[in-house]
Design a protein that fits this description.
By secondary structure, the protein is mainly α. It is built from six helices and no strands.
């Protein structure tokens, strides 16, 4: 049942993104940034955690989950470090994911060679 919940919530987030791409003049980059901002907002007010508890990876893997991680990191760092935590908390909380993305990109660039589309 956990897989179905994750598939449903993750699929719903993707469906909303695809509808925004197809039916509006928003660029994919603006939609992606909007997803992160929505995740930060929902995480900051405490709503996103209940969705993450319900859907697991279906809510934590998409960009809204990244935004939620940033919000949780900032909240924790502000409690521990005060004002300086505003600047460091998001990076501390998301460092593992960012490092994995950079490493995966590096590995892909080593294994595969880019070619012209023509």
């Amino acid at each position: 049942m956990d897989y179905l919940k994750a598939f449903f919530v993750g699929g719903l987030l993707c469906l909303i993104g695809q509808i925004l791409i197809d039916k509006t003049k928003l660029t994919p980059a603006r939609i992606l940034v909007s997803y992160v901002v929505i995740g930060v907002f929902l995480g900051a007010i405490g709503v996103y955690q209940s969705l993450a508890d319900f859907a697991g990876a279906g809510a934590t893997v998409p960009l809204t989950g990244f935004g939620n991680t940033l919000a949780k990191g900032v909240k924790k760092a502000v409690e521990e470090d005060g004002f300086l935590g505003i600047f460091t908390g998001g990076l501390k909380a998301s460092a593992g994911g960012i490092t994995a993305a950079i490493f995966s990109g590096l590995l892909a660039s080593i294994l595969f060679r880019a070619k012209d589309k023509s």
